[in-house]
Design a protein that fits this description.
The chain has 2 domains: 328 residues, Aminopeptidase (3-Layer(aba) Sandwich), CATH 3.40.630.10; 112 residues, Alpha-Beta Plaits (2-Layer Sandwich). Helices cover 41% and strands 18% of the residues. It contains 12 helices and 16 strands. It has a 6-stranded mixed beta sheet. The longest helix is centred in the first third of the chain and has 48 residues. Keywords: Hydrolase, Signal. InterPro entries: Amidohydrolase (IPR017439), Aminobenzoyl-glu_utiliz_pB (IPR017145), Bact_exopeptidase_dim_dom (IPR036264), Peptidase_M20/M20A_hydrolases (IPR052030), Peptidase_M20_dimer (IPR011650).
Length: 480
């Protein structure tokens, strides 16, 4: 009888608390909306700076200062990475992490117009929308901080300023430094041309530069005395073309020749090719990578050049978490209020004329369920997800049909279309974190699910234990 009475009392107080929790959640969402003008100004500034990986000094400082002004305790240079930082508020459990990124991509500088127009003197552009990513995450964190300061949320909120996601693998080194050891769960998002959520995975990836050192000579008068580094690159690439027939399905191997010589009449004494190797399984990536290395070794052997291998980082696939993704998907569906103005539609239709596969503009009103899918991109969020239950989602910040890593994505990034998606992402992050702070059972379910999915497997990063962050991986290659 006593236990039934206690249960009834607990149920009574739980019912009393529900309207209060709902009201506090509304206040969080209202706070995000109130922050929108400042958030958009910050996003536009980072879009304008467009700083490459590990060089995001101004973008990192802007976000860190914004969070510090809101009451967060900021630690700069975490993981021995100058542009990485954490910003923490609150105390105790649970510890919820919100990830933010802010690096730009090479060769994608573009004005905010619906036709290709590169601004003078600029090389980098936010073709993956990370200027929106870092800002929306910070806006959500600041809105939640007000509830922590008011005593309505118990626990710790930590923003992670994560540089160099685009090929630099910074989060791998943050994980290795133990910066996620006390975290109970992590949230992230990504700009896209659609809204989507679910326990989706990603492709593991190894990045490497093969650098060949040969012997210069006059290409016409003394070709027999030269040993062409460019020939070594071409043989390497030919070998990998043949290899493509003999690798598992869903493998991706792609490259650029980042240095190929200086003049046609000089046998190149230096050449470099930059490779990515990807697959849904990190174990498969390890195996394929070793086979690609053999192609490079063969190229060096055949041309009598010297091979130098420069590892540029590796990232594992995302470990999905359905317990968390269901909370995120519910909030994204409930909060999705995206709608274009007549001026937005005019811009969008003009931009879609440049796209091979445009989609209906009405698709921004839909939230796609990506449960069980494997995305075709790679992200260092994967390394976080093997040590902390993690979930993410996409918000429509680009015109439907816009491919990532394109000038069209950069063009969208400084328009109201991007602002709408960024604000939706911030509200979804804030709402999801708020729900999880008040749902210890879901936090436990998410951790149990991570352990169940891991089974006997252990987290094995795709970087060597002694590898340092590739701080100069975005430097334009020239002959050494």
């Amino acid at each position: 009888m006593l236990s039934l009475r206690c249960a009834a009392i607990l149920t009574f107080f739980s019912l009393l608390a529900q309207p209060i929790l709902a009201q506090n959640k509304k206040e969080v969402l209202s706070s995000v909306k109130a922050l929108e003008p400042t958030a958009w100004e910050n996003a536009q500034q980072i879009w304008e700076w467009a700083e490459p990986g590990y060089k995001e000094e101004k973008s990192s400082k802007l976000l860190a200062d914004w969070l510090e002004d809101a009451g967060f305790k900021v630690q700069h240079g975490v993981g021995k990475i100058p542009t990485a930082f954490t910003a923490t508020i609150g105390e105790g459990k649970p510890v919820i992490a919100i990830l933010g990124e802010y690096d730009a991509l090479p060769g994608l500088a573009q004005n905010a117009v619906p036709y290709q127009e590169q601004p003078k003197g600029k090389y980098y552009g936010h073709g993956c929308g990370h200027h929106l990513f870092g800002v929306a995450s910070a806006s959500a964190a600041i809105s939640l901080a007000k509830q922590i300061q008011a005593g309505h949320i118990k626990g710790t909120l930590r923003y992670y300023g994560c540089p160099a996601e685009e090929g630099g693998s910074a989060k791998v080194f943050l994980v290795r430094a133990g910066l996620f050891d006390d975290v109970d769960l992590a949230l992230h998002w990504h700009p896209s041309s659609r809204n989507a959520a679910g326990d989706r995975s990603s492709l593991a990836r190894i990045a490497v530069k093969f650098r060949f050192h040969g012997t210069s000579s006059h290409a016409a008068a003394a070709p027999e005395q030269g040993r062409s580094a460019l020939d070594a690159v071409e043989l390497t690439n030919f070998g990998t073309q043949l290899l493509r027939e003999h690798v598992p399905d869903k493998t991706r191997i792609h490259y650029v020749i980042s240095s190929g010589g200086d003049a046609p009449n000089i046998v190149p004494n230096f050449a470099e090719v930059y490779y990515y190797v990807r697959h849904p399984s990190s174990d498969v990536v390890r195996n394929i990578y070793e086979r690609v290395v053999k192609c490079a070794e063969a190229g060096a052997l055949a041309t009598e050049t010297r091979l130098e291998i420069r590892n540029e980082g590796g990232i594992v696939e995302i470990m999905p978490n359905n317990a968390l993704s269901e909370v995120t998907r519910r909030n994204l569906k409930e909060l999705n209020d995206l709608k274009y103005t007549d001026e937005d539609i005019k811009f969008a239709l003009k931009l879609q004329e440049t796209m091979p596969a445009p989609r209906s503009l009405d698709s921004i009103q839909i939230v796609v369920n990506t449960r069980g899918e494997t995305g075709q991109g790679s992200t260092d969020v994967g390394d976080v997800s093997w040590v902390v239950p993690t979930t993410g989602f996409n918000a429509a910040c680009w015109v439907p049909g816009t491919p990532g890593h394109s000038w069209q994505a950069v063009a969208c990034g400084n328009t109201p279309i991007a602002k709408y998606g960024m604000t939706l992402a911030a509200r979804t992050l804030a709402a999801t974190a708020y729900d999880l702070f008040h749902s210890p059972d879901i936090v436990q379910q998410a951790n149990d699910e991570l352990q169940r999915r891991l089974g006997e497997r252990k987290y094995k990063p795709l970087v060597a234990p002694d590898q340092l962050p590739p701080f100069n991986y975005r430097d334009r290659t020239s002959s050494p």
